[in-house]
Amino acid sequence: MLRRHLVKAASAIALLASTGLAQAFEKVVIQNGSPVPAAAYVDYYVAQEAGFFAEEGLDVAVRYAQGAPQAAQITASGGADLGQFAFEPYLYGYAQGMRGKFIFNYSNHNIFFMAVPVDSPARSVADLAGKTIGVSNMGSGSLIVARSMLRAAGLKSDPSVFLPVGVGDSALQALKSGKVQALSLWDGGYAALERAGVKLRYLHHPRIGFIGSDGLFVADSAYDRVKDRAVGILRALVKARIFMRENPEAALRIYWKANPASRQGATDADALRTGMAELSFMMNLGDETPIDQIGRFDLDKLTNYLAVMKEEGVLTSDLSAKALATNELMDRVGPIDAQAVRAKARGWK
Q1: How far apart are CA 345 and CA 50, in angstroms?
Q2: Are residues 317 and 340 in the same domain?
Q3: Do 50 and 143 sit in the same domain of this protein?
Q4: Which residue among 148, 180, 203 closes a domain?
Q5: Could you tell me which residue ranges the SsuA/THI5-like domain spans (predicted)?
Q6: Residue 24 predicted with pLDDT over 90
Q7: Is the pLDDT of residue 15 over 70?
Q8: Is there a single domain that holds both residue 52 and residue 190?
Q9: pLDDT tens across 114-149, in order?
């Protein structure tokens, strides 16, 4: 009996080898800045579940941190191959010698912006004169953008204008109670409120409101070691975006698998309605960026972004857009069979 089992096992191994399924997957660790799985990383979950990472011969582990500054430190020090976080922690770290580049443009907007209740009389930042603005904490990157927005409108922007209110229910209660008249959070914080049915009006920075301000980062010390695997990650992320556009409900259900607590609703229909509100807000599912432009940086726009960050004292050294971000690895992604990806999305069960 043992002999028969050994023969069967050997035959199975030979079959896997002959069909090309027995391949050595290369490990890649990606460090993001969220403490738990979040809608901000849904394309990673889609790329994992739909097999796009596997198609590149990659075994990807997504790790979590207590914020973008910690994620930046871990990645820059070699604790992860790549990192997914906002630009600001890197800009602060640059003066202390942190070096690397962003290789994938994750958003088409600045992730930090302000919000007021949908029925608020405030229609612009100038209308917030004399108002108190809620922030998650006084170290948040949203404070930087909010200060700049207030200054651009000719308003006071010192710490007395802001009140730490946390996120989620605590931020909402501060807004409802009148402790604050506006919020300054990030897209993920607002997405959770959208999922809960909260209706807000959003105010964006006049100069950098629609410039992507987060992405996939690789430290200079790791670049040569991980660049080939990074190209595979980028290719898989582009496929994930195509998949999500074609079948957002499937992407949502994949997200629920990664984060079961995000599925909220008494019925499946309720959960789909609230879930799609969150996903649509986070991932801009109506985005029509051409496939060959997904993930690429506009260096002219990044130059404007860096100018604002220098005005705010976030960037104290000379840093060019070319030194901050590169399209070099996106240039290596090559053509993608979008029809095959769409077919997979349409047939997803």
Answers
A1: 8
A2: yes
A3: no
A4: 203
A5: 43-251
A6: no
A7: no
A8: no
A9: 999 999 999 999 999 999 999 988 878 788 999 999
Domain end residue (candidates: 159, 184, 203): 203
Strand partners, 120: none
**Are residues 174 and 317 part of one domain?**
no
Average pLDDT, the chain: 89
pLDDT band at 11 (very low <50, low <70, confident <90, very high): very low
Taking only the tens place, the pLDDT of each residue in 287-320 is 778 999 999 999 999 999 999 999 988 888 889 9
List the domain range (segments joined by +) for residue 194.
112-203
- Helix/strand/coil (H, E, C) string of the chain? CHHHHHHHHHHHHHHHHHCCCCCCCEEEEEEECCCCCCHHHHHHHHHHHCCHHHHCCEEEEEECCCCHHHHHHHHHCCCCCEEEEEHHHHHHHHCCCCCEEEEEECCCCCCEEEEEECCCCCCCHHHHCCCCEEECCCCCHHHHHHHHHHHHCCCCCCHHHEEECCCCHHHHHHHHHCCCCEEEEEHHHHHHHHHCCCCEEEECCCCCCCCCCEEEEEEHHHHHHHHHHHHHHHHHHHHHHHHHHHCHHHHHHHHHHHCHHHCCCCCHHHHHHHHHHHHHHHHCCCCCCCHHHCCCCCHHHHHHHHHHHHHCCCCCCCCCHHHHECCCCHHHCCCCCHHHHHHHHHCCC
Do 317 and 305 lie in one domain? The reply is: yes
Cα gap 267→39, rounded to integer Å: 20
Q: Which amino acid would we find at residue 329?
A: L
Tell whether 165 and 312 lie within a shared domain. no
CATH number, domain with residue 173: 3.40.190.10
Residue 285: pLDDT band by 50, 70, 90 thresholds? low
Residues 6+ apart with CB under 8 A from 34: 40, 41, 64, 65, 188
Indicate if 89 and 127 belong to the same structural domain. Answer: no
At 227 the pLDDT is 97
Tally of structural domains, the chain: 2
10: confidence class by pLDDT, cuts 50, 70, 90: very low
156 and 288 share one domain: no
Res 267 pLDDT > 70? yes
